[in-house]
Amino acid sequence: MIDVNVKAKGPQSQDHLAFASIEDMSKMLATLQVSSMELVEIYLGRIALLNPKLHAYAHLFEGTARLAAQAADKSRSAGQQLGSLHGVPVAIKDIFDYADHPTEAGSDALTDRYPTASANAVRRLEAAGMIVLGKTHMVEFAFGGWGTNPVKGAPWNPWDLETHRLPGGSSSGSAVAVAAGLAPAALGTDTGGSIRTPACWNGIVGLKTSLRLIGRSGVVPLCPTHDTVGPLTRSVRDAALLLEALAGFDAQDPATAEAPKISPLAGIERGIEGFRLGVLGESDLARVEPEVRQLFDAALKDLEGLGAHLEEIHLPLSIEEYLAGGGDIMSAESYIHLGHYAEPADSPVDPVIRARIMRGREISASAYMDLLETRRTAQTEFLARMDRLDALIVPGCHQAPIPVEEVDEAAPPNIFGRFVNFLDLASLSIPVGHTTVGLPAAMQIVVRCFDDPLALRIGRTFERARGGLVHKPPNL
Questions:
Q1: Catalytic residues
Q2: Which one of 108, 230, 321, 455 is CB 3.0 to 4.6 Å from 209, fit for a cystine?
Q3: 127: Cβ–Cβ under 8 A, 6 or more apart, which residues?
Q4: How many of the other CB atoms lie within 10 Å of CB of 306?
Q5: Model pLDDT for residues 312-355, shown as the tens digit of each residue
């Protein structure tokens, strides 16, 4: 077993380093208070100690991580620093290809994907100097929001070490790794809430980026109409740092040619005085649990105190229509990309996931085209309703994380997930506090496509006002 008692140089404690923001970590690296090798050993030590319980990681890459850390330290000693991410560890969801390692996407059926090149997003982070620690567990084929996986096992939400509570999905292991101090940041994907729900339930920051902003080559597809790549972090500024490295043209994902060049950190500290923020009406918020609603309402008051003006807005379709329409598009497209794994009678795909994929076989081409037309119409109408507003603020999730044994796979884990993908928007999920039993809640800052920096600016203003948002779970 790896020695978990690795000591950092200077006054920094292991806990402080394991739960430090990337910005703080980068400063410590630059001033030689800690080395990349020490950071890697601290995280590998915590993973060895805690992963048997938390089940965040599916695969570890100790050897390559140590070699990358040595190279980063050597470059730094020679006066070569690539930027704020140089020498900082990261975890990646097992939906991303990592060169010369199998990609399983949380499934025993995916046995034919052994890539020789890493996914675009992974290559970009490594080019910025980040060190991949390993791959994280996920919902099978990313087709689920609760965080369950009967095939590979469900990660354990670190905010309750007594009861196995759901971590949210599908980027379940990535969120648990960041929340539990097993990585300072992680890569996830979001097709209907798969970054935002885990971020909410694990008390961390998660960014559902704009479609076309980050290339998806080397990512196992679920629903290309909705699939996006994004970061899970412990601060809003850290999310901006990763977005800065991730965004840009991907020659193997032609859709990225449509994206403008963005500057996530430019203007992030300018505040929100005079911003007009939309909020949903009572009918759309009726299903939010009372304690979650109280925390959300308190966050809205804070935003008003920071100079924002709140205005009620109504979505073009009902929450139920977004859930149904988004689900149908996912089933139709998942069958195209994954049907050959689910089709055989002896398929090892979990029956719940298999049924979701096989539903796509029953959706006709004309029905699918109607769904896309409904989506386009709803997008146009939503943008018209948002004309005078800068962003829309909604709960991160309508409920707190429940025990695994209470899950109903037919029920939506997060009613505020799919509409963002359906309407081609971006959304930042940030913590807003904890329930009386210590479970995290969050709010989403939803913005127009390619307005990701604006969501980060609003989130950063809130984060600064509250003196930080992400906290260490008890007993970790």
A1: 93, 170, 194
A2: 230
A3: 82, 245
A4: 16
A5: 999 999 999 999 999 999 999 999 999 999 999 999 999 999 99
Q: At 254, list the tokens.
A: 């032609």
Give me the DSSP letters along 74-104. HHHHTT----TTTT-EEEEETTB-BTTB---
195-244 confidence digits (pLDDT tens): 999 999 999 999 999 999 999 999 999 999 999 999 999 999 999 999 99
As given in the structure block, the two tokens for residue 422 are 């359906």
294-301: which pairs have CB atoms within 8 A and are 24 or more residues apart? Answer: 295/432, 295/433, 295/434, 295/435, 295/441, 296/395, 296/432, 296/441, 296/443, 298/432, 298/433, 299/393, 299/432, 299/433, 299/443, 299/462, 300/393, 300/443
- Please answer whether residues 146 and 413 qualify as being in contact, where contact means their C-beta atoms are separated by less than 8 angstroms: yes
Measured distance CA(57)–CA(54) in Å, rounded: 8
**359 Cα distance to chain centroid:** 26
Q: Where are the alpha helices (DSSP H) in 55-161?
A: 62-77, 120-127
Report the pLDDT value the prediction gives residue 6, as an integer from 0 to 100. Answer: 38
Alpha-carbon distance 115 to 97, whole Å? 6
Q: Are 35 and 43 in contact (CB under 8 A)?
A: no
* C-alpha distances out from residue 26 to 90, 213, 399, Å: 13, 25, 35
Q: Summarize pLDDT for 17-40 with one digit per residue, the tens.
A: 999 999 999 999 999 999 999 999
16: Cβ contacts below 8 Å, ≥ 6 apart: none
User: Which whole number is the average pLDDT over 291-315?
Assistant: 98
Q: Classify 155 as helix, strand or coil.
A: coil
The CA distance from 44 to 66, in Å, is 10
Closest-CA residue to 90 (of 169, 5, 178, 173)? 178
Beta partners for residue 92, in sequence order: 135, 187
Partner residues linked to 60 by β-bridges: 134
CATH superfamily of 14-318+373-465: Amidase signature (AS) domain (3.90.1300.10)
The residue with tokens 């073009």 is 316
Contact between residue 62 and residue 104 where contact means Cβ atoms under 8 Å apart: no
Q: Is the pLDDT of residue 9 over 70?
A: no
**How far apart, in whole angstroms, are the C-alpha atoms of residue 335 and residue 337?**
6
First to last CA, the chain: 19
Q: Which residues contact 332 (CB under 8 A, 6 or more apart)?
A: 360, 363, 368, 371
